[in-house]
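Entry 12.
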Amino acid sequence: MALNNNPRIGEKVAVVGGGNTAMDACRTALRLGAKEVYNIYRRTRDEMPAEEIEIDEAGEEGVVFKYLTNPIEIIESQGRVSAIRLQKMKLGEPDASGRRSPAPIEGAEETLAVDTLIIAIGQTALISGFEGLTLTRWKTIAADESSFRTNIEGVFAIGDATNKGADIAISAIGEAKKAVSVIDGYLKGQALSYTEPYLVKSEPGADDFADREKKKRAKMRHLSPGERRTNFQEVNFGFSEDEAVNEAIRCLECGCNDFFECKLINIAGGYDLEPAKYGDEITAHTVNEAHPFIQRNPEKCILCGLCVRICEELMGVTALGLLDRGFDTHVEPFGAALEESGCISCGQCVTVCPTGALTEKIALYKPVPLNEDSVSTVCYFCSVGCNTKLTFKGNMLLRSLPDNLMDKQQVLCSKGRFGFTDLVKAERIITPKIANVESDLGKASAYITQKIKGIIAEYGPGAAAISVSGRFTSEEIALAKQYAAALGIGIYSFERKKSGLPKDASTCGFDGLLGADLILLAAKDIMDSHPVAGVYIRKALQNGAKLILVNKGEAGLADEWRHIKLTSDTYLEALKQFAHGPEASEEVKQALAMYKSAQKPVIVFEQNALSEEEGALLATIAASGAGIIQLKPSANSQGLADLDIGYADELIGKINDETIKGLVAFSEDPGDLVDLSRLDFLCVGDAYLTETAKKAEVLLPCAGFAESGGAYTNTVGQVQKLNPALSPGHTNAEIIQSLLAGITNDK
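Predicted 3D structure (tokens):
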């Protein structure tokens, strides 16, 4: 049948055997036109090795099952089979396979007329050339089940050919995986054995599922028996995507999500540890999933204390502690649930946990242990430029991890560690749309060109503009600038603000910050806005630096670290006192004395939290020899400055006074900064349907943060390589090049 050579089988067919192959033969015979198809099996249905669904569907299609019968003679007529004589059987005691052995009923026989007889009773190992092999009583090859070794030196055997015989294909594949390591060792002169990995295998009982709702398996839609017995079409229609997802979610246990990273498994396997239990009572714990990003499973905790130490010593939070003593010791949040204990969701505890006791919640329908792929790249969420490792499987983004925790700069904050999960859930812009109607990139580009050129023709080149965010790479920003030049219009960014510094650039790196002996920090709450910069400041303080904190009275973790805090209704007032000294308060004078005595002072401030005048005052203070770090809002905000992109206040002013009437915005979402309804035309290119994107006449599907490649320049001037983990529908470069092509084609 597989070769399309349809055999002539006649009207009556008998198939001997009870496996899946026998069921296939029965069902195929019906489809070839047989009017009567019999299945001959020497045991009952309960002992049949075929899948239940195969037996059920064969019966629905009209196969007649003759259980407890065994062929004893094939009757011939004119050179071919004409009938089969059957011995009726009864079940005796179970045999070596666990099935009850059939025994003949003396004198009980039956003769069945047939045109074709098909024997599907199993298989035998052909050992030609290996006649010296020891066989089992089932005529299979006797092989050691841990080393796969036979009685002949250098000969190994696995799968259906060995021991108990036929099994499902995956069993043979599994044995092959084990055997290759054994044979490799044999060829290298090593000992022969396969060591099973050190794994805990649970044996759940009814109590473990008491809180679970029982759900029956979904029934797959299929052809009716009357339809399917007349053709060879696929019987089952398959599940819809929703049905398949719901079926997968029914799974009660898919294994530990930390399986491929668990250090305990690797160490236990490497040292050939034997599982052993201490004689004390085992304390039952429940999995805690209350935290939005972190799952805690105390039963997997080995009390190494790494999570407690990193929370206290590196992050300065002390959200976790070791409570109680002896066998009762366990890791718990202090005094409240983890999400209420001061935890800032940095995920460092998860990163250092050597087992599955602390794991991140993965944004999947059903989290399962995956051997993930990964790519090293740069964090997208702020200008500090943390190196991160994105893990993925296929086109699914799974986790964001510090690229190397031992390096002084490899720490992530809550946004860098978990922020992408909200983006994964956000509504993606998949295709270009014009007035909410799906289009293609070429048509959308032509439409945008027509609209912008129409505005320029009517109002002049100053009536249209491009805006681009610091989430674009420097290469993409340069292309956007080229696009603006081709149209003869201006290019701006809603996030770019005048800093007050002479060159709108930091004069000091993070290494300089770590080596400072005094830090002047002007920020509302550094551990909220730029937590990793806050970690660097804390490290510097641990190394002996002193901290002068300047803000408008806001509280934050930095309050616990500062030596002096200068507060005022505005940053300007406090900084003026500090800059001009003589008329200052006693507290400011103390701060000034501390600053002037410092050998390596560094000033840190959040650019978008201060005015241009306040930034200029900090530049004046820094002129005496201090390094200065201005923290910008986005990953490539410094790239915007380096490429001389226009300022937000200019763009906002021109939109508000209706000088600008048409805008093409790339990955910009200004929110309440400006009234975009004043525009005659708005095009938005973004990966997600933001509030700004919802107002656009034309939408372009930009690449997401994990889909772009190029360079970011972080807030201290380091040029860093951004590597894509996933493949977008269109890269940002392709989209802008299509817009440029639209201008050329229009000419």
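Annotation: The longest strand covers residues 80-94. The mean pLDDT is 89.
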